[in-house]
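QA checklist item 7 of 12: single-chain prediction sanity check.
[x] sequence parsed
[x] length recorded as 602
[x] structure emitted
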Amino acid sequence: MSKGVKGFVRTHWCGDLTKGLVGKEVTLCGWVQSQRDHGGIIFIDLRDREGIVQTVFDSETSEKCRFAHKIHNQYCIAMRGKVEMRPPGSTNPHLKTGETEILVSDFEILSTSLSTPFLIEDDVKVGEDIRLRYRYLDLRRQKMQRNIIVRYEVVKAVRNFLDKQGFIEIETPILTKSTPEGARDYLVPSRVNPGKFYALPQSPQLFKQLLMVAGFERYFQIARCFRDEDLRADRQPEFTQIDMEMSFIGEDDIMEICEGLMKTIFKKTKGIDLTTPFKRISYLEAMERFGTDKPDMRFLLELKDITDIAKECRFKVFREVVEKGGVVKGINAKGCANFSRKDIDELEKEIAPFGAKGLAWIKIKENELGSPIIKFFSKQEIDNIISRLDGKVGDILFFVADKKDIVYSSLGNLRLSLANKLNLIKQNTYDFVWVLEFPLLEWDNEGRRHASVHHPFTSPIEKDMPLLDKEPSKVRSRAYDLTLNGVEIGGGSIRIHQPHLQKKIFEILKIGEKEAQEKFGFLLEALKYGAPPHGGIAFGLDRLVMEIISANSIRDTIAFPKTQRAVCMLTNAPDTVKKEQLRELKIKVMGDAGIEPTTSAV
């Protein structure tokens, strides 16, 4: 199995030693998980990446084992011995190797270990900063090793599946041109071209489109990407995409391939047979029903619109919102009429960060309605509201009135909060849904211009083309996102392959001809040479693995992640550099930030 160390040639992994190997002599290498001294007999649990096995050091059966007391936790050791069945009553049903043990005849301490800053156990309670500072120890934990192995299995499944679908894996540049349209670029100064900079790619978008012009037709890449943006639990400054692009296809073709890919991944990693095709809903339907473009559809609690009722009522708050062009929507918390005022106040605080100025409510009790607002509605209006929200005795109805985006985000988040409080989310369920027909453009108040919802290379829906000149905000795009349990795991679109249409979109985005040539001239030129219709998608590998392993943080899927401050706790990156390095790059830093003291050689 290996060439061995100090005369020990490893023959098996620790996790492979089941009762089928009883009577065989084996050689193992690994780390000491725990040691138990029973006076003359020492039990050591030995761990490698495949599992744990119990080993027995008996000084009566091996002279060498008299020295086993020198072995301590996390020592790296090699050993030789015979596989035996554990005595009756001493088996461990929680271990794959729980019926066997190794009677050790010889061993060697390969290296010793200091006392670790935390126990190398799956359920250890330790701060994440300590875990990241000693990441190489954190990664010894079986849970973390399983996470990284699942990630590898996902990548292997992707490569095998796409190879069978006729895809070719092609690497695109890491040092490229800055074309900031979304998040900030990470910039890399060029020593040989003073004053000029490379940018680390936010995605391989332009290069994969050029590969379609080049005639490769089906491309994929496990692509490293970089974005200098504010971080959250599901974001990292450097991340990995399963990146794909195809020629001569439409949305249905791409979605069919992606569904086959997800089916393969989940069968390989979870043993689950996903049902395809996945559900499909439009962006508009997702927002109207769930208040978000990444809906978690494992539970109901759908938003209901009562704007038409509210505009005629005497409740001034609702009526004035409608008169200003806003909307009023509600949600039915089934069986929650027993919520106290304190419970309601807490829910109101939860949605306040999303812009909601208040949370109106109506409790439906056996013989009465409880609410401070019902006096402003006629009986018919109340009956209509209750009917619209399918209200029954024991329910409480919640309402938010404001601009559309505020109502959507407020009630969308209230929906998730209620689902968690009421345990409505089905566990061990994987609910995929495609969200289609996103708006092509959105108005940027700060920039006083339209901006792309996805990116400026997304194709409009053909029947919406006439609106480009008159009402560009109403144009829908040929974009699609794949959502899993309320998390967007991937998104893509059919691209613009005609130069005149790409030029028109740039004009609407207020990207002038000079700017377009400076940023995207190479793409515009390429589109003039017989560009095929094409489209693609990119899945966030880190985020997909996070959902597969049910992790709470994307950092648990990455071997060496950054913190939410984009810092590597292990290496202390980013760090200062010497003046000599900056001088060589023709860079001057304002103040003393980022500069180490000058060395004596300068």
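[x] summary fact logged: Residues 133 and 570 are 4 Å apart (CA to CA).
[ ] second reviewer sign-off
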